[in-house]
Amino acid sequence: MDVNFVGENLLPGKIGQFFVILSFGTALLSFISYYFATVNKNKEDKSWLIIARIAFWINTISIIAIGVILFYIIHNHLFEYHYAWAHSSKALPTHYIISSFWEGQEGSFLLWMFWQSVLGSVLFFKAKDWESPVMTFIMLCQVFLASMIVGVQIFGFHFGSSPFILLRDAIQAPIFSKPDYLSLIPDGNGLNPLLQNYWMVIHPPTLFLGFASMVVPFAYAAAGLWTKRYKEWITLGLPWALFAVMVLGAGIIMGSFWAYEALNFGGFWAWDPVENASIIPWFTLIAAVHVMIANKNSGHSYFTATFLALISFVLVIYASYLTRSGILGETSVHAFTDLGLNVQLIAFNVVFFVITIVLLVVRKKHMPSTQKEEDIYSREFWLFIGALVLTVACVQIIASTSIPVYNAIFGTKIAPPLDPVKHYNRWQSGFAVIIMILTSITQFLKYKKTDPKKFFASTIASLIVAVILTAAVSYITKTYTNLIFILITFSSIFCILANIRVLAGAVKGKWKLAGSAVAHIGFGLLLIGAMIAASTNEVISINNTGYIAVSGFDKVEKPGDNLFLTEGEPVQMGEYRITYVGDSVAEPNVFYKIKYESIDEESGKAKSSFVLMPFAQNNPKMGGLIGTPATKHYITHDIYTLITAAASDLQAKNANIPADKKTGFEDYEEPATYEVNVGDTLRYRNGFFVIESVNKNAHLENIPKGEKDVIVGLKIKVIASDKKEYNVEPVFLIKDGTSYDFNKDVNDQGLRFRFSNILPKKDKLEIMVYQKPLPEKKWIVFKAIKFPYINFFWCGTIIMTIGFFMSIFKRNKEIKRLDQKQS
Amino acid sequence: MKKSSIILIVIIAVAIAMILVIYTDSSTYSTFTEAKEKKTELYVVGVLNKQKALHYDPKTNANHFSFFMYDNDSTECQIVFNGSKPQDIERSEQIVLTGKMDGNVFHATKILMKCPSKYNQDQVEVIETNATAFNN
Lengths: 823, 136
Known about the structure:
The complex is a heterodimer.
Chain A: H1 11-39, H2 47-75, H3 82-87, H4 94-101, H5 105-126, H6 131-148, E1 152-154, E2 157-159, H7 167-170, H8 198-213, H9 215-226, H10 232-261, H11 273-298, H12 302-324, H13 342-363, H14 379-401, H15 403-410, E3 414-415, H16 420-442, H17 452-477, H18 483-507, H19 514-536, E4 538-539, E5 563-566, E6 571-573, E7 576-586, E8 589-599, E9 606-612, E10 615-619, E11 624-628, E12 630-633, E13 637-646, H20 648-651, E14 672-676, E15 681-684, E16 687-695, E17 710-720, E18 725-728, E19 731-735, E20 738-742, E21 744-746, E22 751-759, E23 764-771, E24 779-788, H21 790-822
Antiparallel strand pairs in A: 1-2, 4-24, 5-24, 6-7, 7-8, 8-9, 8-10, 10-11, 12-13, 13-24, 14-23, 15-16, 16-17, 17-18, 17-19, 19-20, 21-22, 22-23
Helix pairs in contact in A: 1-2, 1-6, 2-4, 2-5, 5-6, 5-8, 6-9, 8-10, 9-10, 9-12, 10-11, 10-21, 11-12, 11-14, 12-13, 14-16, 16-18, 17-18, 18-19, 19-21
Chain B: H1 3-25, E1 27-30, H2 32-38, E2 42-48, E3 55-56, E4 65-71, E5 76-81, E6 94-102, E7 105-114, H3 116-119, H4 131-135
Parallel strand pairs in B: 1-2, 5-7
Antiparallel strand pairs in B: 2-4, 2-6, 3-4, 4-5, 6-7
């Protein structure tokens, strides 16, 4: 059936689709050409290289073009395109239009491809004689990513999902048979309110830059094995590995800050499968970085360094399989939808895994190795052990997170641990202690060989200081009740001290290790902060309503986490007196003002006070009221507040009635009908009213009185409880034998009167009285959590990132030195 | 044998032992009938009974939400959740509960929902801007 659809703008989609196909084709061409440029024995023959480069640049331009066109479509609200309709709406401000760009899978693949192009461009200028082999792997990855957005049918196989698919092709619905269907789709679905946050604008690009940059150490390691330049790749790949670790780390931390500040997760880390998927490759690449450095200095652990660098990128692909295939459906709150790309994602994973295994097996014999055994008092030995422990920690996270994958493969019905946070914390805190102690003692060791006497002398001094500080910190933060908490505190403090010592050495001139020392100090602080905040955070909005604390009976009815507050009525909550002051509306959000006052017990006066404004968006499309917390930051703790329910969603009840179906009586309660005589007095909710007289000379504007018509008014005086008086005169009309009545309102009192009938037989007059319901007092239900010492966590993350940056700077210098030596 | 090789073997052994232990932590997806027998904390997957009323009255208790749910065997059971009402539960297509049975009532400690808005955006919601044209 051919229908001429009205109002569609098909050109951008056609151009976009052209570039999608072009990006796939050029990625493939560039990959093949770089491959032949690498294997080509004739060094003078540059033909393959030239083709590869041209294809690479066309690929880059295509990717940018796809992005620009997609943005054009979203920004201009062209809802004939499924992507724009599904992820955006007209009400979104520009910065959220940017985030709706990568809300969907296609957009996030595009973001990944874009970063990979940027990294490819840097390598194009910097990689020199490594360009061909390194770019071979990067372009192979680009081929797979481009295939995800191709969106064509080949022999009935759905190949990729294009961002330019039309709404009427994506969805089967009867309205698409109408030529003017577009006029029936006035707006898009919009962006999930949880994603309407500035972190959503910067977190995904950072995270995807982190993921994308992990392909570079992979490409260097694989290229090193492939072209048999075994030793060199470690020096060249190290700054890239550090860059990937830094950016991915920053991306993960932004995610945790987003979760804490803007999502209603009630914390900064929940061991959600999606979070786990991002931290697994981060851990393995950190392990890789350490072994790479050990190898550079001692020649040991070449295989481990190469293996870890390779497997880290394979784990990035595995992570995107977990989050994009829909396999985590039953265990995670925020995995992507299944787009039918499973086969492609698995192929992507398998290809890179096979490359890893084949290269490692084929080149195993040729890998450089030292016959000499590591000395037990050497840094490289303990770096190696540390990397192994980190890898095992990763294996634990992978094993637990992959439960849905086993279920899919083996058809089992295993459910993940009931309390994931407890499950992961139990394992990971043990690993953390071991890793931190290893990080500490390696600082006292030298490469190749250390004098045991000197080692013990300096170690024991730091150890004693660490023990004293641990006692102090545990006492102040009240974390001394649990042995593992004490151990984490101790190992982190030990690590910080050991690295401060290194940093002190750096100030004296040994700048070489300053970056690593800063990164280690940051990580130590991060760990202490995370441990204290996660173990001692407490819900302070404890609600004892309906809870009777009888020993043995309190198992079922636990006191709840949510507190009910009525506007203007203060409630005591621990040390705070809290009041729901009121709210303000800034479409589409409602901000709830909650005042916290710390009360002095003796004088009863407020010592200090602050107002928090958590907000909520009542978004019926995305599932009702969605709260965004507000947090008061102190140096020693944070007070976090989240709205979990509010009266506002009840008040909007009548707003959905279409205008032409409104009767004008919705706002009133059921009326009361009275038969009255002049002089009667009747009560209403806020006072009384008197039937004063019948006005036979009443007249109505616009309605001329006919000869036989009757127009009668009924004068009523309303007297409110505050002595205010109102006069009102509803009118009864008989025109051409039909009776009508004209109601009159007393708006101040929420009253409406109808003079509805005259009953001559009874000698009575009939009136109907409508009252507006009493305005409901506004209320909210909220949850408040106190996070002590969380600033250690944020401080630590920033310091750690600075440390990575310093290391990249230093390792880049080493490459320059290597270049100078060669030239 | 090198020291590092020995340690490698030890660590691999630890890793294997660890994975075995991890599965003592894992549980199974059950039904209400099984939950009644076991009386331990477990997962139940099912769908909301949309015919019956959801009860949440924050004025009397802000931490009491109850509703009825069918499990995968179509057994119906009343659920009591010690917390506020999850906002989009009416729209949920599937619910995963964590909790245990107490008498004939299932006490949930965690509710995970799958909602069409989050997981399946492909439901066209037509707004009648042009009611006459649409009714033709």
